[in-house]
Structures are given as structure tokens and as C-alpha cells.
Design goal:
This protein is 75% helix and 1% strand. The chain is mostly helical. Strands 1-2 form a two-stranded parallel sheet.
Length: 403
């Protein structure tokens, strides 16, 4: 009975997404929302330029380095490197929730960015400070909302909630210390994004408001989601279907940006984590596994885990990408799906070869879609494999090596 009930609600969710994709496409919902919101946001970006210039009048090297460093610490690449360590330290529940939350934040924030398609502050006159390649890529995205602000609100807020309700730390003292620290961090990040010329004040306000809304929603469903992931019915098949449909539910921006690529990566990460945890929860991720800084896991053991784990997941990432680059074009060609590649496979890049993708049966069905970019599938498989290795393959190696 329980399995039947699960199949019903899961089918309803997936079916609802399909209906939304078809309806939104037919009614051109993205264009209508953009026509309504973009002029208003763009106007506030323009009138916010003098304020940014006033702040940048106080620029000097130390502040450039400080705020660039802060932006890197709360960036998606940082969380991507930090989350495996959290899993391997034994804090499985926190790691699961943080991973799924940032995937949700990334998807929601980037959807809003590409629906509105509002510009960042114009440069010049604003001086845009991009100290890293990641920041240069971020500058290619649309502005509203600020992803750094949104992610900081959600992840620091959830971390504080976890400390207060799931650890032995004194709740009163943790609240008095933790809340001001979270507020200070969010304030510094918001100010840093304006100082660096990456966002207008309207972007920061939107990131704050959307972040608070997402955090409130997540705190009301996090236990249900975690229980489903570790002990639910049809978890892997449902999440695979959900991940696939979310790729198609993503709105089309006014012009292409890296936002969809970032979402694809974390969509794959979420699927890999859910798959690995569902398969190995009782072996590696229950509440009874050894944790760092306890008698069961010394710091040297954790260091050994890191030395084994990091090279392993990098090898898996490389192998997953190579496998996907070989298999996805073969499957697509077998099914008659027209394909292209923006960067991963030069011979499928029309700009390089000058060849138009061959027309197939799927192209006749989807006349508005000239061809599908296999880079999306390759990127998705690559990060799914990487995340699966973090929670399944690597912990298996730890067991084998007595770590």
C-alpha cells in the first residue's frame, strides 16, 4: 500500500512538471513575465549606479582582496569542494541537506535570473572587479537576484538551525553568537557584491528576500525530504525523472548565459548524492557512523580520508566525462535525435565544422528545437558520477583501507 501511495504522488509530481513545461511553453510565460519585470528592474539598476560609484570612490587594495576573498568563500565552487569533506567527516545528514539545499537555491536563483534577464551594473562607468576565473564567468550571468546573497542567507541560516537543533551545543549561547554572525556575514557579502561592481542594490535586496523565502520553505520540509532520501520508495527512479524534467523546465534566457550550466552541474550532483545515499545509507551515512573530533575518528584518519578521497573523485569525474562523451552521441544518433556540442566535442560544433545537424524523427516532432546540445548531458552525467563517488565509492575505499 505504501509503495502504491508513493507511486501515485511521485507520478503526480512528475506529471505536474510535464504539464507546466507544455503549458508555459504554449503560453510563452517566460516572455510575458520578462516583459513585465525587466523594465522595472533595469530602471532600478540604472538609478543605483551613482551609489555604486560613491562606494567605489573608497577603493583600495586591501578591500579589493578582502571582498574578493569573501565572494570566493561563499561561491558555488567553494561549496563543491567543501561538501565532500563534510560527508567524509561523518556529518552525513548535514551534508545531505546542505547539498540538496544549494542545488535548490542554484536552480531557483538561476531560473529567476534568466526569466527576468536584467543587466548587471554597466561597466563602465562601474568598475567590475573579477579576481578569479569564476568571477569572470559570474559576470556573464544576469544580475537579479544576487546568487551570493541568496546562497549565503540559505546555507548560513540552515547551518545555524542545524547547530541549534541537531547538536549538543548550548542553544542559548549558540543563538546569541550565531545569529549576529550570520547577519554580519550576509551584510558583508551583500556589500562586497556592490563594492566589486557585480550587483546593484536591487539585486542584493532580491537575493535577501528570495533567500529568506527559500530558507523558510526548506526548514518546513527538510525532515520530510531527508526521510524520503534515506528510506523512501522508488527514490532513485523518481529523482532521476525529476532531474531530467528540471532540465526542460528551465526557462530560456534572453541571451545564453552560464546559469543553465551551473544548474545542470548541481542537478547532477543532487542525483548522484541521492542515489549513493539511498544505496549505502546504513553502511556509511547513518547517525551511528564515526564523526570527526570524536574518539572514533581522529584527525589523522580524516586526513587519510581526504588524501584518498580527493584523487578518487577527480578520477571518477574524468572517467564519467569521457564515458558520456562517447555514449551520449551514439545513443542520440541511434534514436535519430539531432545533436550539437558547444565545447566538449569539436566535431559536433557547427561553428567549427560548418555542418548543420542532421534532421531526424525527433527534430520533426520538436520543430522549434534545431538540435540538442550534448554538452548538457555530458555535464550532467559527469557531476552525477562525481557526487555518487563521494558517498558510495569513496566510503567503500575507506572501509577497505580501514579508514
Amino acid at each position: 500500500m505504501e509503495a502504491a501511495d508513493a507511486a501515485v504522488w511521485q507520478g503526480a509530481v512528475l506529471g505536474g512538471i510535464v504539464i507546466w513545461v507544455v503549458t508555459a511553453s504554449f503560453l510563452d510565460v517566460t516572455f510575458k513575465l520578462r516583459s513585465f519585470l525587466q523594465p522595472w528592474v533595469s530602471h532600478h539598476v540604472d538609478i543605483g549606479v551613482p551609489f555604486i560609484l560613491q562606494i567605489q570612490n573608497y577603493r583600495f587594495g586591501f578591500l579589493d582582496a578582502l571582498f574578493s576573498g569573501l565572494s570566493c568563500v561563499v561561491s558555488v565552487p567553494f561549496y563543491t569542494g567543501f561538501l565532500p569533506l563534510l560527508f567524509w567527516s561523518g556529518h552525513g545528514k548535514l551534508a545531505r541537506q546542505m547539498t540538496l539545499l544549494i542545488a535548490f537555491c542554484d536552480y531557483t536563483g538561476n531560473c529567476i535570473k534568466d526569466v527576468v534577464s536584467a543587466p548587471r551594473p554597466p561597466s563602465p562607468p562601474v568598475h567590475r572587479i573579477t579576481a578569479t576565473k569564476d568571477e569572470e564567468d559570474n559576470a556573464l550571468e544576469y544580475g537579479l537576484p544576487s546568487s551570493h546573497t541568496l546562497n549565503t542567507v540559505c546555507l548560513s541560516g540552515y547551518l545555524l538551525h542545524y547547530v541549534l537543533y541537531h547538536t549538543q551545543i548550548d542553544g542559548v549561547h549558540a543563538t546569541y553568537i550565531g545569529v549576529p554572525l550570520v547577519v554580519l556575514l550576509v551584510t558583508l557579502i551583500g556589500f562586497a557584491r556592490v563594492y566589486l561592481g557585480m550587483h546593484s542594490v536591487i539585486d542584493i535586496i532580491a537575493g535577501l528576500l528570495f533567500g529568506l523565502a527559500i530558507l523558510a520553505f526548506w526548514l518546513s520540509v527538510d525532515e520530510y525530504i531527508d526521510n524520503f532520501v534515506v528510506s523512501g520508495q522508488n527514490v532513485i527512479s523518481f529523482w532521476a525523472g525529476l532531474s531530467f524534467l528540471l532540465l526542460f523546465a528551465y526557462p530560456t534566457p534572453e541571451i545564453p548565459t552560464p546559469s543553465f550550466e551551473y544548474h545542470t552541474c548541481f542537478n547532477g550532483v543532487a542525483l548522484g548524492i541521492v542515489t549513493g545515499v539511498q544505496l549505502t545509507y546504513h553502511q556509511f551515512h547513518s547517525e551511528f557512523v564515526p564523526r570527526l573530533f570524536t574518539s572514533e575518528m581522529k584527525i589523522l584518519v580524516f586526513a587519510g580520508r581526504v588524501l584518498v578521497g580527493i584523487p578518487t573523485i577527480l578520477i571518477v569525474k574524468f572517467c564519467s566525462k569521457a564515458l558520456a562523451k562517447w555514449t551520449i552521441p551514439v545513443v542520440a544518433n541511434t534514436l535519430g535525435i539531432p545533436i550539437k556540442s558547444s565545447s566538449y566535442i569539436p566535431k559536433l560544433n557547427p561553428l567549427v565544422t560548418g555542418n548543420k545537424p542532421k534532421e531526424g524523427y525527433f527534430q520533426k516532432l520538436l520543430s522549434t528545437q534545431d538540435s540538442f546540445d550534448v554538452d548538457t548531458g555530458i555535464r550532467f552525467v559527469q557531476y552525477t558520477g562525481l557526487a555518487w563517488s563521494v558517498v558510495d565509492l569513496v566510503p567503500s575505499l575507506f572501509t577497505y583501507l580501514s579508514l
